[in-house]
Write a structure and sequence with these properties.
Thiol Ester Dehydrase, Chain A, single chain, alpha+beta
């Protein structure tokens, strides 16, 4: 497994995430994906860029989209991968992939769009250059 193929985050599915059909409830996938994005920012040591108290801006979720491929069950270990898809003037797009560790099955693909907003008016504002640079490859 190359560095790029390694999962960014992994976690074990808890009983509280299971629906009446015995697999992870669809709404929990959003939580898993959001946790993976936060771990992505933490591992890059740029989580402070996304805290309003230290960055002077906030980020609101504009869009969250998930495509389900294979169910995740109780006690499964889920592995997540995150990529920055696009950095726009005022928005960021993330791609998140969830995999089941026991068999490598691709369980879900998600796309998040976050919009950078001003603290005083919650209106879109340009992403700070320091954040843009920290998210750019290389």
């Amino acid at each position: 497994m190359s560095v790029d193929d390694r999962p960014l985050a992994s976690f074990r599915v808890s009983m509280r995430d299971i629906d009446i059909y015995g697999h992870v409830h669809n709404s929990r996938y959003l939580d898993y994906c959001e946790d993976a994005v936060v771990e992505f920012l933490r591992q890059r040591q740029i989580l402070s860029h996304f805290r309003h108290t230290s960055s002077g801006v906030a980020y609101h979720v504009k869009k969250a989209e998930i495509t389900f491929h294979s169910p995740i069950d109780l006690d499964d270990v889920v592995e997540a991968k995150v990529d920055v898809e696009k950095i726009g003037r005022t928005s960021l797009s993330f791609a998140i992939e969830l995999f089941r560790q026991r068999d490598g099955a691709h369980c879900a693909s998600a796309h998040f769009v976050w919009v950078c907003v001003g603290l005083s008016d919650s209106r879109p504002t340009p992403i700070p250059e320091v954040t843009r640079a920290a998210l750019s490859p290389g």
